[in-house]
Specification:
Blueprint lengths: L1 H16 L1 H38 L1 E6 L16 H12 L7 E7 L1 H12 L16 E6 L5 H9 L4 E6 L1 H43 L1 H9 L4 H42 L8 H30 L3
Antiparallel strand pairs: 1-3, 1-4, 2-3
Helix pairs in contact: 1-8, 2-6, 2-8, 2-9, 6-8, 6-9, 8-9
Amino acid sequence: MNRLLHMLRETFTSLRRNVAMVASVVLVTFISLTFVGAAALMQTQVDRMTDDFYDRLEVSVFLCTDNSTQTACPTGAISADQRDALEHSLEEGAASQYVSSFRHESQEQALENFLESRGETARTASLEAEDMPESFRVLLHEPEQYPIVTELFSSAPGVETVADQQEVMDQVFAILNGLTIVALIIAAVMIVCAVLLVSTTIRLSAFSRRRETGIMRLVGASKSMIRLPFVFEGVIAALVGSLLACAATWVMAEFLLGQWLTRQVPGIPFIDSSASWIIMPGLVLVGVLLAVLSSWLTVRRYLRV
């Protein structure tokens, strides 16, 4: 216990002597691990959105109307028999094995939904029900099977086109995943800077205390007793930076995602601070391990005992 207290006293004495360098280690560690936390939050958010999107993925079978082009609908607007045939296929026919549920959206309902999502503007005020497409909205058992359903209906009589949200959402998720990768790259660069800064701080500390370490060596102090205070110095600085990064991660999850974006975009399920508690232990572990490794290797190389 006395040895541990002695090493801790030596550690805090060195921290006071090298306040500027220690503050630099804390800040660089804080910034780098904050980027790691932001990337982890972003990936968690993408996973949450992906799961929610696949649960609600619909295939839209747009039916021919009087305004459809001759190329897409050579027989004109869909007839009642054609509509019944499509509905039978969804209920009991070839497509039924892939369909979880479906609903018919009339032109009037399509106009109402469009106005509700876009709001009243000068452009939408002139729209009429006849301008909107009639459709079947199909929810699948397995969202990955949408190409099969698309193929079944794309050439069916009375169908103008078949569309799904997969392509658009894949582009959105690709952008979000790209941002995650960018954040990780920045974090990796900053972590390298933090490791180098920890190493430099330990080297300067060892150089400034070379007389003390020489005396300790002469009186018979063990290698671990001489080296560990320098390692503790790097670990404490990295631990403070890690805890600050944890706090920043919690703030982003709670206030940016959990509150502000939830109010701004109510249709998307955003994560909250509970996700940050899963990420925090990893941030602390990464910060401490990097500090231990870089400090220990530096001490072994530059501190001869």
